[in-house]
Amino acid sequence: MPSPRTRPATVLLLASALAVVGLGPAATPAAAATVPVGAGSYSDTRPAGTSGPTTNTGTPVTPKVTAAARNRPVPTNDWWSSLAFQRYGDNPYSTPMYGHPLTYQATAGGLDVGYPTTPVITGDGRQYEFAHKRDLTIGLTGLNSPDTKADHWSDWTVTPYWSDGTRTLRTTIGHGSPFVYAKGSGGNAQITTAGAPTVFADQGNVLGITVAGHHYALFAPTGSDWNVSGSTVTAGLGGKDYFSIAVLPSTGALATFKKYAYSFVTDSKVTWNYSGGTVRATYTLTTEAKEGSERGTLQALYRHQWLHTTDALTSYTYVSPRGTMKVRESTSFTTTQKAAAVLPALPKSGGVDTARLRGYLNDVVNASDPFSGAVDTYWTGKALGRLAQLVPVADQIGETGIRDRMLNLMKGRLQDWFTAGGANEFSYDQAWKTLTGYPASYGSDTELNDHHFHYGYYVYAAAIIAQYDPSWAADSAWGGMVKTLVRDTANPSRTDSAFPFLRGFDVYAGHGWASGHQGFAAGNNQESSSESTNLSAALVLWGSATGDTSLRDLGAFLLTTESESIAQYWFDADEQVFPSSFGHDTAGMVWGSGAAYSTWWTANPEEIHGINVLPVTGGSLHLGGEKAAIRRNIAEMERENGGPAVEWRDLLWEFESFADPASAKAKWDASNGNYTPEEGESKAHTYHWINTLAAVGAPDATVTGDIPTSAVFTKGTTRTYVAHNHGSSARTVTFSDGKTLSVPARSTATSTGSGSTDPDPEPPTGNTFQLRAGGVLTTATGGTAGSDTIPSANGANHDGTPYQPLVYEVRGVNGTLTSGGQTSFRLQVDAGTAVGLGQQARVSYDFTGDGTFDRTETYHYFATDPVTGWEEYTQARGLKSATGSLSNLRGGTVRLEVWSAIGNGASKLQTGTDKSVVVIPYS
């Protein structure tokens, strides 16, 4: 039996300690009042003898914010939360904050700024860090503030505030921002560098300096002049109150950055949309012009973002712990991704022996304590999750009695927690605007840790109940309490006065953070990314079951976004993120400064690898999108472990099944069921999971359905299409390869068909690529004719600039450039009867598959006629523009984009035939 998860600091294998001071008294709660919510309730005061947020020595703390921000819910669990959550009594400023590319730390004299570009390997090779190291401090002459407070924040930016009674300073910082925007009064602008700076440009109010090998530009108001004296650089503000600094990718970038130096960012906001199997997200900065009229800006995109945008990027790049960041010259950009699949359970298949499964189900439901003694929020959640996975499995084989017994167990335990006044309850903290479950665990009370981990299990269990008993999930019954947990962890509202926006998710970083206070030298951290996505999948299921499409679509956005971040930053799927000196293929924990091959409680390789897998559910299918990474992951685990998994073997078998179901089944078969399940697992679930995937194949992420609760599996050339319809009437689900599936009301349906692509393909051969629905380019033939819809240009002119394009891509291409060869294509397009439409194509080449497109060819658009029927658009229209030169492909990527350049209507692009192809000039 594995040891219970505990998190003592003594086994923390990380270089991130801070001083401990003093011991404070526990706060005494006031008389409690019960707040009714439907049939349930929570308390407005925590139970006697318990604690809320405290310093590390137990002194109660309240949010460290200015009067202007006093009534706003504070977004704990963020990259900058130490500004507002004072975890250490002797540090009223902040711990290091990792915005990327810049790092920050608040001090009495202002804001320390760094740009770490060289990784350091620590912890016996178990951690890589781009640790914060001060290059300079932004302040005002004489500033000596007793503390720093959070004054304003938006989705990924924050404004710290300093005041010493005479001088006042505000700086706005953010993810992806190469700028720091400062507003100050009572003193001159002052930049103090870590060593004497080298000046490479002096334009009076604009100064270029190099510090520790990093290039910075300082911008004061027009008419001001920067003066350098040793390591101190000052400028009078001439009656103004603003100045800014920027880290430059090179000294030659100064002119570009100067253009935007006075366009101050005032707000950041993400919007998202789910439609037809696609998730789109737009990230927008709002600015104000301090001088002139320029309102544009520069922002650096993380790898998980630039992999999925077709928006134009500059040639500027930055180093970060998440790999290369690429710079966009605009206030916004949009990402487009295939939605991650979610199912209530894997489908029924012939691979499962009903009698054996029934026996395993009875073992669970007849246990003396199906909750295994759980009393706190985390372990209760794990037990609820274990039961929730088995309810649809029991239903599949007609065991309605077992199903209903499990449903009643879940209802009883949830209702117990959802009712204030008993041994278990949720309590609302008015100061911190948070809902905490008591008994708490792992710092969910005193540090506000892990709420999204814990409550995800509750929402998931509630979603399964709602699937079978919609009345239980009504707001007037128990659904109101479920939604209150959602508001605490994943609130989609920015105007809710009771809870912050998306507490558990950093929209720009693309993943959650676990620590409520972020009080570590390495920044914030997240260990179990899979428990973060468990909440997102739960939102998809809850929203689907209750008809709340806004929550369903929020879940799709969160899950799809974080799935790519997990692939890149935890599993290094493309092998482009981890430093070569790190020497590991996976990370157990991601930190603001880097990542670590470790967990909070053990150095056991099985748990390091397994913690980002559990719980395995129908919301885990996104893991199957990176099969090569899974194979590397399992191989490393076995190397580090000295052999196959023992303690968490069931989890790791299930993980392996995402890439190699037959191998996973062989390991299951060899065990003959003689093992102890991981605490959140059961033999019933593991048996059903592994044998089902062995029968239907691994998840195929290349094909998506047009509802979030659909998925595709491929074994050989046979695809199995699955969809669950939570609605009260039958519906048809359409998949991106053209397959349709009729799904009865409140049911799961399956069907099979021939697949023309392998979800884990070998490098393609040949130079003619057909288009496939779902964004695939393939050399395979014999596809099914279909079409994709090219979105309208909405009456605007997008000639030369992709606008909501259809994107088709193939990776892993090897080829030798044919001398004198050129790209060619034939694309069948149809505008129907719409007048004045024009479709445009762009072909791009990434020669080495590193994510940078080295050659881009944009062709003149094709004006379609208003007569229904296919027309052929070819390269004969001619090149409009091109960048780069063609070269040999070595594991490269070829991308086709097609969009509406002009017009006010949608059109069609043919897929699945040899009449819509791209031919590349390679052999």
UniProtKB/TrEMBL annotation:
UniProt entry keywords in alphabetical sequence: Carbohydrate metabolism, Cell wall biogenesis/degradation, Glycosidase, Hydrolase, Polysaccharide degradation, Signal
Catalytic activity of the protein: Hydrolysis of (1->3)-beta-D-glucosidic linkages in (1->3)-beta-D-glucans
EC number: 3.2.1.39
UniProt keyword Signal present: yes
Start and end residues of each stretch annotated as Disordered: 41-63, 739-767
Keyword Nucleus applies: no
Top EC class of this enzyme: hydrolase
InterPro entries per UniProt: Endo-beta-glucanase, GH81_C
Signal peptide range: 1-32
Bias (Low complexity): 49-63, 747-757
Highest taxon in the source lineage: Bacteria
Residue ranges of domain Glycosyl hydrolase family 81 C-terminal in the record: 375-683
UniProt-listed PANTHER family: ENDO-1,3(4)-BETA-GLUCANASE 1, GLUCAN ENDO-1,3-BETA-D-GLUCOSIDASE 2
Family: Belongs to the glycosyl hydrolase 81 family.
Protein name as annotated: glucan endo-1,3-beta-D-glucosidase
